[in-house]
Amino acid sequence: MKVLVIGQGGREHALVWKLSQSPQVTKIYCAPGNAGTSQHAENVDISDADIDQLLAFAKREKIDLTVPGPEVPLVLGVVDQFRKAGLTIFGPTKAAAELEGSKTFAKQIMRGAKVPTADYITFDNLNRAVNYIHERCGGGRFASNERPMNVTNEEGELFQRTNPLWEQPIVVKADGLAAGKGVRVCHDADEALEFVRDCLAGNRFGEAGSRVIIEECLMGEEASILAIVDGKTIVTLDASQDHKAAYDDDQGPNTGGMGAYCPTPVIDAAMMDQITQTILIPLVHEMKRKGCPFGGVLYAGIMMTRQGPKVLEFNVRFGDPETQPVLMRLKSDLFEMLYAAAQGKLRDVPEPEWDPRPAVCVVMASKGYPGDYEKGFAIRGLDPKSDSETSRVFHAGTSIKDGKIVNSGGRVLGVTALGDNLDQAKLNAYERVKGIRWEGAWCRKDISDKARPKTEANVEETKVETDEV
Q: Which region ranges are annotated with the description Disordered (predicted)?
């Protein structure tokens, strides 16, 4: 069987690596791929957004299964085009991909399915959004005390509020795709106003920011649920936990993800069953009822609140970096699962088997990320022979220049390791991190610490000493 993986990140490297283990797979292509995917597949110089060229290639090479990694080709309709041409592809249609392509659409679907999520309001008009923020908080910082305050909106209208201070943050989101950077947790009105203006007036995210959602900030522990879906059958994978904030202790701006671990103690078997029954199944039923049945990877970002699990967001593809530790633990044949799902026969595939050992993935990033960063620095310490059953380096933002592997993206590597327990998995991952260098390389030092009781004292053995590694 020939397989085409679309994308060029760490997720795609992990997919290529895992698919290559299947005895049914004879050849893998990755478009466009990176320096790491070339270890297991033949890279093809086609953009993941160039649907016409991807389709022409798949026809020419008689590809048996195509697996899109990122959200962009899915939202552009790659699945529709491939199926129209009679090709087997794993993923949601363009209509179903709106679950990630538009946060407003996702909220409407959740409302119809009675899926628990944050209260929200949508704006495509700057003045109305600004007025709402002023009305809600009067321009003060989030706090519990009360005091009167006069504020003025964009049109010079005067507001007076007896409770201008917010008791908890709000979340402002660009409605469309923004590469993981279109969400701001706002701790005061100035932050909210700045981000809203950036989206609606500053064209920060282009068309993706032409509409914004303002919603309540859910409090609790986060978890990522990945499920394989064929429209009728749902197979959940072991839960993981991502680390979105750039810096330790969840400080700094949001990123595409600075690390993840799997499994997470936040989700036990009973809770996974509850999430399946109250979130995943109702969502899949509602999508079918709306005329856009869902097939592919259903990614539910969950917040475990005091009221129970609530959905932060839905994505329609494998998460990145969650895919790396999840697939590191998966013992089943991934190709068999995805091929069956693409054909609507997921029910015929055995339940996935898992390595009982936990896995930790630490993302190494370029200096300046998630803002501007420099590219082209040679990466030292990347010997594929060092990869083993217990540790592996997945390439995300890498390329080959003058025969050397260099950084070409913000998130560069996902250093992933197994261990007999979570502490050992973390230690194994950071030991690999210490042996990899390029100018300006850095990472978070606390990946997986959320899973450990705050009273535990054995932090020193897994500690990374500096921000730059």
A: 449-469
